[in-house]
Amino acid sequence: MGKVLRVAVVGAGPAGLYTADALLFQRDVPVEVDVFDRLPTPFGLLRYGVAPDHLKMKSLTKVLQRTLDDDRVRFFGSVVIGKDLTVEELRARYHAVVYAFGASTDRGLGVPGEALPGSASATHFVHWYSGHPDVPADTFRLDAEAVAVVGVGNVAIDVTRMLLKDAGALRRTDIPDPVLDVLAASKVREVHLLGRRGPAHASFTSKELRELGNLEGVDVVVDPAQLELDDVTAARCADNPDVQRNLTILREWSGRPRSAAARSLHIRFWTRPVELRGEGALQAVVLEETTLSGAGAVVSTGRRTEIPVQLLLRSIGYRGVAVAGVPFDEERGTVPSVDGRVSRDGASPPGEYVAGWIGRGPVGVLGTNKSDAEVVVQRLLSDAAFLTAGSSQLSDVTTLLRGRKVAFVDCSGWGAIDAAEVARGAERERPRAKIATWAELLVAAHSADVV
Predict the structure, then answer these.
(1) 258 and 225 in contact (C-beta within 8 Å)?
(2) From CA 87, how far away is CA 201, in angstroms rounded?
(3) pTM value?
(4) Tens of pLDDT, residues 34-73
(5) Is the CB of residue 81 less than 8 Å from the CB of residue 36?
(6) What is the DSSP letter of 207?
(7) How far, rounded to the nearest angstrom, does the alpha carbon of residue 159 sit from its chain's CA centroid?
(8) Which residues contact 408 (CB under 8 A, 6 or more apart)?
(9) What tens digit of pLDDT does each residue of 317-372 get?
(10) Which whole-number Å values give the CA distances from 156 to 89, 175, 203, 291, in the listed order?
């Protein structure tokens, strides 16, 4: 066996932990992996992005936990790269660094009135109901009766479902108690799901879409005229089973008679917001009817309508955030790379790599990160002999962090948080109840340190 390859992975979400797992799984090169995250908890989007009622998907944390449990892995939570540790300091202490910190913000609409209170990011809303410590429990009060959700991807579907679902059905999930109280007191009665293109161009999956039609006490309203396809689109989608399933579901809903349900969902295609209006807070959204040009671009028909809403959540794409010392493509919102290696000043030398959304952009499902990580790890391993050649003993990052009094959360600290959440849940006959504030998370993490 050759020298031990020491790798730092920045980001403890699925992309980062799949990268660590791929490094551990191979047997050609001995490895040690340190995983860093600015949050005190691992699992990233799986913990703070997957809806609380998607229990099967959230159970993947058990698989990722096995990676953290490996003796060759250390977790450094609550460590901000670029602040607590510079990239240069990381590179001096590891043979290789993999950036896998995801895409944590969203894209704006770029329309007048977007800054009005009541206009918010769907990402922010997801973080709120997922118990993310950056988003206080009182961020959303849900005193709006009418809500617009802009976007027709799976995140938009999740947000819509959480707005309309009976809070009682969420009492067996890990949703934080204060959020559950807000959802139980919600005044939302009407949600408009808005897509600027037609149903054949929507990016939600049939499984996610179908869940909307099974919400108790909710009427789903779809205009059948919006489901008609032109000849070109029909031909293009004829062999696409995902589109065909979506259309089948939507057409079935469009034929349903309205009932006396307390809540309603209006799915509207071929429309986009062009202005948000209100005095001191959002009161209405101006919608513009759209169509496709001959080249396939979205263009306006010139027809506009206005609907009253008191809350608008945009879900039109994620975007990465720059980290100090790491190259960043502002236009794409990603870390530039060539074949998995990070590009600096037009060159892509061995030593720095990128995996997941921050490298390829916010596309694909969680499982896509696994195959992506495996490809990046193969590139890294092909460089291993070069990376370890002639290297002297690398100093341990722990000494540096402790010298700076950075109260990082290690695997035992995360284990203490996990145990505390499970205990809270047991008291409420739930699998877990999330701890959702920075202060409480850090107290739980460091409780084992108190003698």
Answers:
(1) no
(2) 40
(3) 0.93
(4) 999 999 999 999 999 999 999 889 999 999 999 999 999 9
(5) yes
(6) H
(7) 12
(8) 76, 77, 78, 79, 84, 401
(9) 777 888 999 999 888 888 999 989 999 988 999 999 999 888 887 776 677 788 88
(10) 39, 18, 10, 21
